[in-house]
Amino acid sequence: MGIHKKGSVVDIEEVKAPTRLTGAVLEKKLARDQELQRIMTGEDDRLLLIIGPCSSDNEAAVLDYAQRLAQLQEEVKDKIFMVMRVYTAKPRTNGSGYKGLVHQPDTSKLPDLINGLQAVRNLHYRVITETGLTTADEMLYPSNLVLVDDLVSYHAVGARSVEDQEHRFVASGIDVPVGLKNPTSGNLNIMFNGIFAAQNEQNFFFNGAEVDTDGNPLAHAILRGATNAYGENEPNYYYDILLKAIAQYEQMGLANPFILIDTNHDNSGKNYLEQIRIVRQTLINRDWNPKINQYVRGFMIESYLEDGRQNEPIVYGQSITDPCLGWEKTQALIHEIYATLR
Q: DAHP synthetase I/KDSA domain: which residues (predicted)?
């Protein structure tokens, strides 16, 4: 029983040194971060897409996808701003299964967290430096933030983490957007309480030291659907639920109200093709109601090179976690969104 130390304490600066952004690449990254901030505050009315594989399990395939996405971003940049999902830590409901690149940098080998940390930084670094895109990741482990805080431009707090106080408090000290998902129960109060905590100053212990935070005015809502007591999916991208979420934003007086629709997970029932219909329906709702248009300003879409999923990493560019839209459908969907936007 107990916790058993397996190696020496990680030297954070040593891990970061080979993959620090400098020069023109750093300037471009910071410029894109400023664009993203203006979208979050409403100064820029482009639609936000947080898009990419469910999990970044294969470096070559992820970079292949990133190159394609970067080209597509150029085609639609006047109406759509994309941040690529480079998700490197995956929550596991029962603790088993693939836990992401940070745990297992090589899916054919045993977990190797020290090399996993380096692999995570290397992948974000390569996407940024080789494509010009900026990246998003899930903040599954708040203590790992210090290892990627200079690279990641958008953090998500997942459905199983949103009620955790440390996640909320750490989110309050991040200087880029943090999306907080509703919990799997669908309780919007929990999500909005998390946003309130993240937007305000906090004081707590972090990585062995007492810290104060400034609050993060870019913390916002991600609606990802719910699972009811019978294990059935209950979507929450519907018109009436959006109006309830907007009313709660207004009642609480939160800064920079912004709602992102997660088109997969419990909204789609993990039927990846449903993501297309969910986007279409939400765009119709935005056109129908000016308030929804004002608040609902982005989508989180799970997309990879090949449709669907697989249990073992055999097919190049196909997810080994949740099923994703393949590239052809992704490209068609983004062109459709672009044509729909005024």
A: 37-333
Q: Amino acid identity, residue 235?
A: P
The radius of gyration of the chain from alpha carbons, rounded to an integer in Å, stands at 19
Domains with residue ranges and CATH for the chain: 25-340 (3.20.20.70)
DSSP category for residue 201: -
Find where tokens 């990846």 sit. 272
d(CA 293, CA 239): 11
Q: What is the pLDDT of residues 119-174, one digit of tens each?
A: 999 999 999 999 999 999 999 999 999 999 999 999 999 999 999 999 999 999 99
Residue 155 phi/psi, 5° resolution? Answer: -115, 145
245 in the Ramachandran plot: left (φ > 0), alpha (ψ -120 to 50) or beta? alpha
278-290 burial string, b = 16+ CB within 10 Å, else e? bbeebbebbeebe
φ, ψ dihedrals at 339, nearest 5°: -70, -25
Q: Which of 268, 271, 300, 332 is nearest to 53 (CA)?
A: 300
Helix, strand, coil percentages (3-state) for the chain, rounded to 5, are 40, 20, 40
Reported as half-sphere exposure (CB side, CA atoms, 13 A), residue 1 has a value of 0
pLDDT tens, 271-291? Answer: 999 999 999 999 999 999 999
Least Cα distance to 188 among 143, 151, 237 occurs for 237
